[in-house]
Design a protein that fits this description.
Strand content: 5-15%
Number of strands: 7
Structural class: alpha+beta
Number of helices: 6
Distance between the termini: 71 Å
Radius of gyration: 40 Å
Shape: rod-shaped
């Protein structure tokens, strides 16, 4: 489709206006009908020639089509860029976690499912400081599942046939105290492998403030968003 700019539109308008204008001018100057017919024919031919060059020419249509495709590709590229940015932005926003947000549903004691009512066989609470019986590191509980909530690929090597029963026992997510020098920031362990530490035990971990607002002498105080998930702890 040919592109008609302002100059071309003005030219066509002037040519179309020239026909009636020439007719009236020829009357005032006393030209005879034969002269007027010749002038009108010449103007008509000129107008038709200009129109065919801009509207009926294959080159004009080809150039117009190239211009349209170029603009279309530009719009598509901009649209794809916007979609990529949107997907990146919302993807980042979904996985972000701070004092007022929780992560989307996931494994290892991080599910956003509200733990209510609390099963009687879950002994420990979020905010309690514990120690691992076998490895000796200390930490604070930040989440729990009534039974192991992990991918099957994680369970198979951790619980061989002789330990299969542990999958159905409570599991706790723990922020490991950096002072222990254990090398791992978190752990997900069954209830039988940990025990409560009585008395004050300061836990050093970069994510402590995201989960807790303070310490009441017996356990850490949950942030409001975490308390909503564990209302009975």
């Amino acid at each position: 489709m040919p592109h008609i700019n302002a100059a071309a539109a003005l030219q066509v308008s002037m040519l179309l206006f020239a026909l009636p204008a020439q007719y009236f001018i020829s009357q005032w100057y006393g030209m005879d009908s034969a002269d007027r017919i010749q002038i009108i024919e010449r103007l008509t031919i000129a107008s038709w020639s200009s129109s065919t060059r801009s509207c009926l020419s294959l080159d004009a249509w080809a150039n117009g089509l190239k211009l349209w495709l170029s603009k279309t590709r530009t719009c598509l590229n901009v649209g794809l860029l916007i979609l990529h940015f949107r997907d990146w932005y919302y993807g980042e926003k979904q996985t972000k976690s701070d004092d007022n947000e929780v992560k989307p549903y996931s494994y290892f004691g991080e599910s956003t499912h509200v733990r209510s009512p609390k099963p009687e066989h879950v002994q420990f609470r979020v905010g309690q400081v514990v120690i691992h019986k076998r490895f000796g590191y200390s930490g604070v509980i930040v989440g729990w599942d009534a039974k192991a909530n992990t991918p099957e690929a994680w369970l198979l090597p951790k619980y061989p046939p002789r330990k299969q029963d542990l999958k159905d026992t409570p599991h706790y997510r723990i922020l490991i105290n950096k002072a222990n020098g254990f090398g791992k920031p978190t752990a997900y362990v069954p209830e039988e492998e940990i025990t409560i530490i009585m008395g004050l035990e300061v836990v050093h971990h970069p994510d402590m403030e995201a989960y807790f607002s303070g310490y009441d002498g017996t356990k850490y105080i949950m942030q409001p968003w975490l308390k909503k998930l564990y209302p009975h702890d």
